Amino acid sequence: MSHGYRIVQWNPFKTRFDRVLLAGLGAFLIAYVIAGHVLRTPDARPAEIQLLIGAFGGAAFAMLTFILAIGPLARLSPRFAPLLYNRRHLGVACFGLALVHAGLVLLWYHGFSEINPLVSLLTSNPRYTSIGGFPFESLGLIALVILFLMAATSHDFWNAVLGPRLWKAIHMSVYAAYVLLVGHVMLGAVQGEKGLGIASATAIAAASLSVLHILAGRIAMRADAAIADTEPDGWLRVGEALAIADGRAIIVVPDEGERIAVFRDGDRIFAVANACRHQGGPLGEGRIIDGCIVCPWHGFQYQPQNGCSPPPYAEKIPTYDTRIEAGVVFVNPEPNAPGTPAIPSVIQRAVTA
Amino acid sequence: MTRQQRRVHALVWPVLAVLMAALIAASLSARSQINGRAPIVAEEAA
Questions:
Q1: What ipTM does the predicted assembly reach?
Q2: Do A186 and B8 lie within an 8 Å CB cutoff?
């Protein structure tokens, strides 16, 4: 959360996650190089450095595909939500792999002339009107710049400085980077490949990712269209108070504006904005632990009565006024300013003699 | 995500999917043309 600045806030989960990540990457790189040796005859075998270029490029593309699949998977099933927690580490590792790939390319293909390697890369092939001979390196370079910007601004410090909306908008440019990389691979490695292995893997990755995102997008749009019933006074009908599981929430969609998470904590009902201040995580899919709403994405906490993160943190989200009539909860769709205390509605239970 | 971000996301991905499909098709078509030529011509084209 926002208090203080540390490059990585290590904890046992992150340490384990990164160890598995490094082991997986090492296994991928070794397997790629071994396969390059075993599957090719000696006369068709590329130089070691060319195998490494392919290995690092392939690992970066595979990792980016996985990273981009995490978001829709988490929206389709909460079981994948823990993967969101460490997505930043995956993103930075992906940039590192792409950087090594680019460095090896510059060294091997452009490092032995008198021209600056980067200038050589951008000027040695001007056939921008050809498909088969397109200078695919330029696509990879633009994607690398986007990945760099994302890695450089991935820390929560930049999220706080830029604001969640701008930060998210910048980071959505990763979709453009992915398309550029599909072009980079298809117009580069695939054109020189004898078989269709790389082409098939790239096409399957792009198709799977597209299906996942389109599916998740449709579900989200359908949920946004399920607008809650509005009372004559403009308040929204949430439902039976006791139908809300203790410590959990029901998410309500107003006609305009953002979704509202209506939480029950024992006999008290609170309503806050559904979008976490950090990265817009769905707070209504989280739960109340130790008196605080916990975001299911990265564990950001908010006090339900005022939408403020517990001290020393400073994040604030809007709260909403609620009321209960005949056991039914209603919420005012007009948000209070972030951090404004809202009096909780109390569930009146029938007293039996 | 905000409602606007969800809307952008839902609109952008079908477009990206079409774009990537077109790229893949164009690439495979160019590749098959190169592979269909004599080796020396293919080498020049590459």
A1: 0.82
A2: no
